[in-house]
Amino acid sequence: MGRNSKYSTEEKLSILNELSHSSVKEVARKYSVNDSTISHWQLLYKYQGIDGLRSTHHNCSYSKEFKLALVQQYQESTDSLEVFAIKHGLKSKRQLSNWIIQYNESKLKAYTSRKRDSIMLGRKTTFEERLSIIEELIKHDINYNWAVGKYHVSYQQVYGWYQKYRKSGNDPQSLRDRRGKAKPKEAWTEVDRLKAENRLLKTQLLRKEMEDTYSKKSNGNTQSGGERFFKQQAIKKLSQEHDWPISVLCQIAGITRDAYYNWLHRKPSNYKVEQSELLEAILELEEKHKWTLGYLAMTTQLAFENKLSFKAGLKRVTNCMRNHGIRANIRKKRHNRVKRYEEYINDNLLNEQFDRQSKNEVWVTDTTEVLYGIDQVKKAHVHVALDLYGRYALSYNISPTETAVSAIEVFKRAFK
Q1: What pTM value is reported for the model?
Q2: Residue 382: in which H helix or E strand, if any?
Q3: Distance, CA of 352 to CA of 255 (rounded, Å)
Q4: How many CB atoms lie within 10 A of CB 193?
Q5: Residue 368 contacts by C-beta under 8 Å, 6 or more apart in sequence?
Q6: Closest C-alpha to 376, from 291, 302, 312, 289
Q7: pLDDT tens across 187-201, in order?
Q8: Which positions ≥6 away from 334 have C-beta within 8 Å?
Q9: Cα 2 from chain centroid?
Q10: Rounded distance, CA 298 to CA 344, Å?
Q11: pLDDT for the residue 407
Q12: Is 114 within 8 Å of 83 (Cβ atoms)?
């Protein structure tokens, strides 16, 4: 529930009392409240009483054991997620839902409050330590709390060191502890000072290079709703190409490290799993049918052979085949051919008189296409010479294509 509720506890109770003589929709319309909100108030009042309607102003802390026990009880319960959560003292189902997700990912832990300011005690540090801390602080976009947790020093120490460094014009000598003793002249040479300045300058230049490279990588990726995805893609590429720290790249991109790693280790969505299954089934059928299935034939065949665990319509199959360049290997019909008239028509010598009284009076020939092999995909042409007197074959010739040479060869064999 929200920290600053629009309605007080008494107003919520009054709204719930009106449900005795009005429907939820009528009451929701009257007070401009969502139907689900009123139903949620009903459950809170039913199982938690008047305390359930009161708004909380602080986070409740729960131990890991309590969360684990509640998740395991829910797995054996028949109640809905919302009813079960409210029955066990939670304000909404979101808390229990998050605990279930953390339980499945083995990340369930006790509640820890966020520390806005460090209360860590200071400790003694050397000059080299302070120089390294400031160097890393600049790399991490002046994040004082990060430096406190990393180096186990107080917030005041880190803040004071950085302010001294800035006010002195980025002079590393300002990080020396001069309390109670004068600075020895032999302790710090010009070469040492230049080396320290060089280290810090390199850190600043590296940060500038990372910002410029990231800007070029992410520039142009402005699709609606995909800005975060392209940021995460740019971080992954830059980390792999230049071995730059993820935490700094996340700061430059303006996203948290948790969000990046959640994206990096994400599980594929149900849609992607289904698309992979669809693509495998399409490739299997195309191989089986020698790449002769088009979009409509493929959709029909998928349904006929029950290849998928889900329904895939013509549009989805078409998009999948187009995206992966899968096409039927058949010649398209040409509709723009110009019909030409025959320039020469042979004479009608037989005049439909096919009955003959003697041998070798009339010979005729014809060609037949024969399909053979597995799945009838291979072709052969059989040319036969026939004597009309007895209607018997004089000779034959088999060729892969229908040509004039193959037809003449039949007559040559007949003469032999």
Answers
A1: 0.32
A2: strand 378-387
A3: 89
A4: 13
A5: 381, 382, 384
A6: 289
A7: 667 777 787 788 888
A8: none
A9: 32
A10: 45
A11: 85
A12: no
